[in-house]
Amino acid sequence: MSGEAAFIAALRAIATSPAARGLADDAAVLEIGGSRLVLTMDAIVEGVHFLPHDPPDTVAWKLVATNVSDLAAKGARPCGCLLTYPLADDTAWNTAFLAGLQQACEHFVIPLLGGDTVRQPEGSARSFALVALGEPEPNVAVPSRTGASAGDIVWVSNGIGDAGIGLSILRGESGARPADRDALIAAYRRPQPSPDLGVALAPHVSAMMDVSDGLLIDLKRLAAASNLAALIDLDAVPLSQAFVDTVGNDREARLRAASAGDDYCLLLTAPPTAQASLEAAAARCGATLHRVGKLAEGHGLTILFAGEPIAPPPSLGFEH
Amino acid sequence: MSGEAAFIAALRAIATSPAARGLADDAAVLEIGGSRLVLTMDAIVEGVHFLPHDPPDTVAWKLVATNVSDLAAKGARPCGCLLTYPLADDTAWNTAFLAGLQQACEHFVIPLLGGDTVRQPEGSARSFALVALGEPEPNVAVPSRTGASAGDIVWVSNGIGDAGIGLSILRGESGARPADRDALIAAYRRPQPSPDLGVALAPHVSAMMDVSDGLLIDLKRLAAASNLAALIDLDAVPLSQAFVDTVGNDREARLRAASAGDDYCLLLTAPPTAQASLEAAAARCGATLHRVGKLAEGHGLTILFAGEPIAPPPSLGFEH
């Protein structure tokens, strides 16, 4: 068991409230009066979740977007956020961060409600925490990772792999044509989760989460949480033209897309009978869903390419 | 204007939701369905808010207690918290922190609902963020800093100055008798806010906040938020026997108590007619309130000692 897994197992022994969902989900669901509130808290750390030279406005965007992505995956509409901000004397950095924060809060319609500014000692990596609150639609269950059944179809919304290549480009490990380069870097720095899409899909799914660490690892986690085996068809993973231009379209390229992190799109399961409802709901939001696999009795993840099972890549995604 | 003041002014321009209370209060108040939720988020950073050698269980306690203190000051009963935890490879530290977290969550009856574990790069100061949620009593206004009127009496609950001396002792700047030493260090490391007391007082106050940065500076802030002048009678500031044993009881000692931070007790105002109700409410919680001053038209803070105004100390408290 990794250090984090052991730590979370110990935390789980403390977090016994049903609202905590056993710390096995992307968010907590608290009953307040007659209403439900979805709560998520994601932090980002310089040098770990963003690069020291990322523009500060994009750091703010990413902080808000990663939290909104969790709300979207729980079918919740954002209703507020609170921020912990490490205040340094770099006024230009602070000002640019605030511009990005305002832009993100407006874009995702998530009011800033409060938070805390703190000093960090010299030499510490900047560390930001955000908590985001959202409201699900009345009478719609808040999707978890645990609700899938054998026979359910696995769907993803767009966006697999682009952010990972964007990060590679920023690290100087990949090249790309200028137009593709901008799109791929934007995918890394400015994730575009859609609460509208999450809210529209929630009534029709059996399980839903966001893809943040890589499609393969996140699907494996969803299947494990539902006590099922997952099968994914690599050929069906949706790739952008920028991705194909830059990395290609073959088995290696597809494995790379499906094991890259930072996608912040939706991964969902539903019985085959829900297909028409899902596609109609996505279309109402101007989105397209892609059928990438299915769930079965058993456990583990099987990856198919050209109809045949293939060996998994050394890493299924980002493990932290 | 300090860097933090300028930053918060800029944040305020973003945080325009009424729930944010203009970022001028200790907490946000969000309407959810027919209910209200009080939200606060306080972070603590190694070397800034706690000492690198503080026992990890007390770091966890302090993180929870400082947030619960804000809920208490808003008359809210804790209903949940989420944690950002910087996970390092120091298993003994992590385990001790979790023991303190569990102890604090049980003591303050605040369920842990979720959060995030993050890696920090080598050499970064540990930085923890907690968001705490609370529910006020139905039909009781959530006290703000802005509601006081001229003529209102200023009250504090116990605990002024002890934590500041505890910090001094830990820094090797003060000595104390062994029994006093333990009590004063415990005041610094294990603040004891009381949501029961905050909930009991809330119906009777015109304004309420917690004392976290120093009684003088916090009273000055409350008065400023209410557009009033404050007068404080130093002789009336309640000092513990441990404080008196260690520092004394004279003007300098009293100024030191009233400008030390980390008290996490309650500072409240109410019209003179509320005295009996306040004292009865406190007594029901086994607490005693101390009448330390009053509010008047005007602005600024006047400090009285032996009935005469005295010059303010160089620092009224912790400014951050």
Features:
2 domains; 10 helices; alpha+beta; 320 residues; five-stranded mixed β-sheet; Phosphoribosyl-aminoimidazole Synthetase, Chain A, domain 2
Fold topology:
2 copies of one chain form a homodimer.
Chain A lengths: L2 H12 L13 E5 L2 E11 L10 H18 L2 E11 L4 H17 L4 E7 L8 E10 L16 E5 L4 H9 L7 H12 L5 H7 L5 E5 L3 H11 L3 E5 L7 H7 L3 H9 L5 E6 L4 H10 L4 E8 L3 E6 L2 E3 L10
Parallel strand pairs in A: 3-4, 8-11
Antiparallel strand pairs in A: 1-2, 2-5, 3-5, 6-9, 6-10, 7-9, 8-10, 11-12
Question: Could you write a compact summary of the structure shown?
Answer:
2 copies of one chain form a homodimer. Chain A has 320 residues and is an alpha+beta fold.
Could you characterize the architecture of this molecule?
Two copies of one chain form a homodimer. Chain A is α+β, with helices and mostly antiparallel strands. Chain A folds into two domains: 3-136, 2-Layer Sandwich (60s Ribosomal Protein L30, Chain: A); 153-310, Phosphoribosyl-aminoimidazole Synthetase, Chain A, domain 2. The first copy, chain A, is 35% helix and 26% strand. Chain A has ten helices and twelve strands. Chain A has helices spanning 3-14, 56-73, 91-107, 162-170, 178-189, 195-201, 215-225, 241-247, 251-259, 275-284; strands at residues 28-32, 35-45, 76-86, 112-118, 127-136, 153-157, 207-211, 229-233, 265-270, 289-296, 300-305, 308-310. In chain A, helix 4 (162-170) packs across helix 5 (178-189). The first copy, chain A, starts with a helix and ends in a 10-residue tail after the last strand. The mean pLDDT of chain A is 95.
